[in-house]
Fold Dynein light intermediate chain.
Amino acid sequence: MAAAGDAVWAQLHDGTARTHAPRRTLVVLGACGTGKSTLLDHLTARRTPPLDGALDYAYVDVRAAPRADAPDAAADDAHLATHLYVLHAAAPAVGATLPYAFPPVHEGHASLHALRSAGVVVVLDGSAPWTWAAQLVRWLALLRTTIEGATSPTPTEDRAAMQQSLAATLPATDDAARPAGQLVENLGVPLVIVLTKADAIARLVDDRRVSEAQLDYVQQVVRTVAARYSAAVVSTSAARPASLEALRECVRGALQRAPVGLAASTNDPATLVVPPGWDAWSKIGVLDASFDCAATGEAWAAALEGDGAFAAAYAQRMPAPADDTPPADDVARVDEQAFLAQLYAQQPTPTEPAPTSTVPADDARNALGPPVGTSTLDMPAVGQALAAQQAAPGAPEAPGAPDETPTPARRSTRPDARGALSPRGTSSATSPKQTEVLHSFFQSLLKKPAGAGSGTGMPDVPGTPSTPRTRLSQQGSDTARSPGHTARGI
């Protein structure tokens, strides 16, 4: 019973500590698709709500990593109630909403009181290192403008307190003893630069899209810029939980204004870890002695004022691949009907259908001859012979034949009323007349003369040219004398 009561009191104590704990503000700046949601899910140990607006807000609890040496940490140390603001673009229309992350806002200006307990995380896409310079210029220029425009009843005292609080978290507190290039610009707000998708950096080298010399150059540029603000630099990957734990320590140190006890790692850009206040020009030059940190710092200061020399020099050393286009800050949503109309206009015009064969399947199957039961009038040779006889000059018209030469029509396999097959396009009434003409023609050829000595010859065949009577009589006499020649004459 006592154990149950202790558990209830522990829950009440924990809830009270979280409610009355000092609230911090965490601002995450990063373009769309850089991996911000994955980082936030790990920092809060829960699924964050969808963040897809101009300036998204969520109330989260940045939990501390469990430690083996101090399992019973204080409630205010284990839980860190945080106001989370996420900005997805640095465009003027979207960046103008950043001051509202530090209320109370007076006429579009942030409050210095909220900035004193805030931390900023800038997220860069590790799979596209050619975009780092442009993204850094946009985000840090926007952050500096917001901080310089912040107001309070006592702005001078508040700014001095912010700068002293940031300097107190660094290893060296004496400005005169600081290494060259460190904390040149004291914004008074802790800054963490995160290189997400670090496992993609190795693939870029394997695919020969980026050389190792280029990676050393971009690492030196990022570290030079980070050293000017004493910012932490961490490369993270979902496949390496240790990198996410390092980021958690840097974020909690920035929110609590406490030193970060992390070991630096600068050998590989995929496992880069630079604690705040650790880097300097002497350490950056170890990678490449030809790199000029001082010139890069001056070019960076001019870039914040609008000069493009810094971005141009970076693009010359780290150009974007030919198959990659720079990401757009603002994605315009096209109207659905306009999009469909555009797709319809891009469709090819319909072509004419392929011509099909007009020859019936029966004709293709019966190419060697007419089918059984088909009239001989459908044979092309007979039709041509009849047309030639009728077209000859002086040829008598065949009895019962039509005035015009009939054109051979396509066969039809449909029987007529009498059950006989008739040509398509020809009436059944004309078919017997043409058949009679052919019948009489062939019978006249086979008909023998009436007598051997008679003067009469073969009768005129209808539809054939007339033959002189005397010649037919002579042929008849020869046939009568030599009966054996009858078959040869036929």
Q: What stands out?
A: DSSP finds 19 helices and nine strands in the chain. The chain has two domains: 20-317, 375-389+432-440+452-490.
